[in-house]
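Dear support,

I submitted the protein below through the web form. The confirmation email said the job was done, but the results page showed an empty box. After a refresh the structure appeared. I'm attaching both so you can tell me whether what I see now is the final result or a partial one.
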Amino acid sequence: MPGTDHFTLHRFTIKPRHLEQYLPLWRREVEIRRDHGFTTHRAFVETDAEPKLTWLYSHATDSAAAEEACAADPRQQELDELKAPHVFRNHLVRPVDVEYFPTPATPESIAGQAGRERIAIMRRYSIVNGWDDFLDVWRRIVPVRERHGFRCLFAVADRPRDMFTWAFDFDGEWADFPAAQRGYYHDPSRVELRGVFDHMADYSIHPAQQLLV
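What the results page shows now:
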């Protein structure tokens, strides 16, 4: 559960045109981490530029010791060599607090209409003017979004870096997203929460593929 496990958000860039070669290696790494007590909760690949992977996992006890054991595992060492040609070395690995416990990705949960998958919308905010005030507003935003068909998938806070990361999904194409949001932003319940922007010094929004684990 969020109150006991140690959660980590891991983010890095896959080299352009290397995604198909890399993902089978990543799934092997998920299995190795599982053997060392890690649970993968969510993973996404942003799809609008070079592919960036956002990976949320946890460990129930001493995550630092488990990381050391994983790094010393010969399977992981071999895998690191295999991964090297496919990823950049820009890994950002940081502990995070869970603000919305991740929902599992299943074939049924990501299935959209017309045979397509529901895309995820990955959002990252640089937080100013107080975490408590920001979260008070954000927690009221989530149910409004969900009423308009945008399901929250997870949310985590990196307080030392003042970074908030969350994702919701959407049954449509990325090109349809601006039009799909109009009703949401005109909803009176959302209009009264515009003060959330007082807490966002900067933000980014990207479409992403939800990865099954």
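Response: this is the final, complete result; the empty box was a page-load delay. The two ends are 19 Å apart (CA to CA).
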